[in-house]
Predict the 3D structure of the following.
Amino acid sequence: MNKKFLMICLFFIFLCIIPFYCQFSSAKYVFDTSFDAVKIQIEKKPIIEVLSVSNTNTGYEKYANHTHTITLRVKITEKNIAINHFNRNTIQILINNTIANPSMNIQLISNNHGEIIYDIVLSHVTGNGNLSLIFPEGIIEDSFGLKNDFLKFDTGISIDNLSPSATTEELSIEDNKSQYLIHANENIRPINGWDFDNNNSSLSKVFSSPITYPIPITDYAGNISEVFVDVKNAKNIVFYYANYNKYPVKQFEHSGQISGKQAILDKTNYKSEMLVMYLDGNIDKNSLQARVFDYTYWGENTTALCDYSEIKYQYGYTPSASTWYDMKSLNVVRFLGKLSLQLGGQGHNVANNSCLNVSKPIPSQIANQNLYGLSGIALQLKNCDDYSIVYQVYVPNIGWLKASSDGEETTYAHNKPFSAIRINIVPKSEKQYLLNYWNRVMYTDSIE
């Protein structure tokens, strides 16, 4: 019985231990059931965009011609570029939707964090019309096979390689003045001293004196044309002058006309011996001031009498190198019925003529060579803020000298007298145009 009781107890003990044993055994393997979140990335197409456009046509950046440089800054956004065909062979340049072929230089500016910056530099752009660029589809492709979209970019710049054309018109207005108009076929840039007339394609200016000279007009793209200003009817202020060089003087010249022209035409060696001049119109007649260098046969410290007026003239500067004659001076004469300022005097190259203080008659063979006369001249307008005086002399065998103005002396050499001269009163804003125009004929025999 005891043995049977023992067996029963062992059986119950076994039954109690089994659940615990199974529980312990199942815990032998521990599984980690935590998970990382799946990272999902949505790929975007490569993007091409124009960040900025610049133009070297300063002040008129919306216009350009072949002389200007246009720069486009372009950004490409893409981290995983597999194919990059961003180059001059794929980018198209259009002028009014027609393919153009300017010089193109592509410069890499930066390449950071999925952004590439390029500068597209265009120069020598020919043609006429609106400038645009085409970036074709697929010139940038990423590693997933995605490609950029087609992009046509309008720069907003008008390419213009045609020079402006213009017509001119002179209108007589009050006080014997003229309003001169320049009508261009397109918008043009301002010109100093001229006014825009209602729009940016017409310029106007009031003139007091006759004058002829060319003026450049420039369109917004920088193209330049030359237009001749030819004022004929203005008589508010006129400068009259006559030059004696052995030819008879029958009239005064004015407004840039050549006095002494016949000596140029005949190619003589005649020299200017005397000048007479006066101002007319709405200006103080005494504002005219003048001096000359007089080269005479008799030499320094000698004085002679003019055969026409008996006014004294002398070797060297008259009146001096630092003083001036004007209409209040003693050398004022009546010439061709007009009260005029005289410089020099007739008789420089007359055989047997002599000066006052030395008995030294000019020999015939010397007189025939016509070696003597006025060799330097300076003119200016006193107390005249709005106008300049421009003058140019012609020296035989040399041609026209560089034009001078406002008190500058013009001379080739004091022993080389001139034979012809032209003079004009000009608004100060236009002085350089006239100087440039007259200087085109330097060292020539032109009579235009």
